[in-house]
UniProtKB/TrEMBL annotation:
Source organism per UniProt: Pantoea wallisii
A GO molecular-function annotation: carboxypeptidase activity
Residues forming the catalytic site: 109 (nucleophile), 204 (charge relay system), 274 (charge relay system)
Annotated protein name in UniProt: Muramoyltetrapeptide carboxypeptidase
SUPFAM superfamilies attached to this UniProt entry: Class I glutamine amidotransferase-like (SSF52317), LD-carboxypeptidase A C-terminal domain-like (SSF141986)
Family: Belongs to the peptidase S66 family.
């Protein structure tokens, strides 16, 4: 059982349509002794968003002026909406308040856009991690996800091992970054995409067909981004169904084309993303990736850890 923590909710993206799941998550976290702040973010709604732009922006910018920082800042859910706010985020204030503080900013999906913008503008390291409604409020809690979450937030060095179908072999060292692939591509050409040299790029997505994933990866290559990466790690790509028209064109085909065309190692099959089972990764950390005979291991360090 993890030590009781203060958890501040933020909802900078879509309205939480599964209110029951969010409330279930709050009850579970409170039962474990955690203090939950900003509960009003769960029920806010404006059109498809979790409140209007000003309300959702305030969730983010308030972190720069809180008299007492929480241990964890947890996104309620993803969806769409963060991108609308990026030009008005108080990056200087957030950097001044959060730099070198043991605060874990956690979320994924649409939240990726804010995480990468913070990394680009301030150097702040955040966690691609489970969220309130979809993960902590799941009908069946994933012990895998919870274990990896609490270990990542409390361990100065985090190591994740998994079995990969990748034919690659080797060892690479670089900056771990990435998240949701659609959100990464949405930031190309903007000030919000970090310019990572010698990166280890981890990607995941949901409801995107293999051809759409390949198209986004080609965009990364044609923008010069893939050339600056040491390796790619692929997480889960879910909620898609191949048809007869695809004629064998699947995700494995996409990954192999990356290897053949761009000479990039692609280490597949990490439990990371929108599936129930997901690891927690520090975006902006110093990482080492290695694989031999299908046994992959990723270790990272340099992230804020809870006291």
């Amino acid at each position: 059982m993890p030590a009781p923590r203060s958890i501040r909710l933020i909802a900078p993206s879509g309205y939480c349509h599964n209110q029951a799941a969010a409330q279930c998550a709050v009850q579970r976290l409170q039962a474990d002794g955690h203090r939950i702040e900003n509960l009003s973010a769960i029920g806010r709604r404006f059109q498809r968003f979790a409140g209007d732009d000003a309300q959702r922006l305030q969730d983010i910018n308030a972190l720069a002026t809180l008299p007492d920082l929480p241990d964890i800042v947890l996104a309620v859910r993803g969806g769409y909406g963060v991108t609308r706010l990026l030009g008005q985020v108080d990056y200087a204030g957030l950097q001044s308040r959060l730099q070198n503080q043991p605060v874990a900013l956690c979320g994924h999906s649409d939240f990726t856009a804010l995480q990468l913008a913070l990394l680009a503008q301030t150097g702040l390291i955040t966690f691609s991690a489970p969220m309130l409604a979809g993960n902590f409020g799941a009908e069946a809690l994933s012990e895998f996800t919870l274990t990896h979450f609490w270990q990542a937030l409390s361990s100065p060095t985090v190591s994740v091992g998994w079995r990969s179908n990748s034919p690659d072999r080797g060892r690479w060292h670089g900056t771990l970054w990435g998240g949701n692939l659609a959100m990464i591509c949405s930031l190309i050409g903007t000030p919000w995409l970090p310019q990572i040299e010698n990166g280890i790029l981890v990607i995941e997505d949901v409801n995107e067909h293999p051809f759409r994933i390949e198209r986004m990866l080609i965009q990364l290559q044609q923008s010069g981004i893939l050339a600056r990466q040491q390796a790619i790690i692929t997480g889960s790509f879910t909620s898609t169904a191949l048809s007869d028209y695809d004629n064998g064109f699947d995700f494995a085909t996409v990954w192999q084309r990356l290897r053949d065309t761009y000479q990039l190692p692609v280490i597949s099959d990490l439990a990371f993303g929108h599936d129930a089972d997901t690891v927690t990764l520090g975006l902006g950390t110093s990482a080492t990736l290695q694989i031999e005979d299908g046994e992959a291991q990723l270790a990272y360090t340099g992230h804020p850890t809870l006291r």
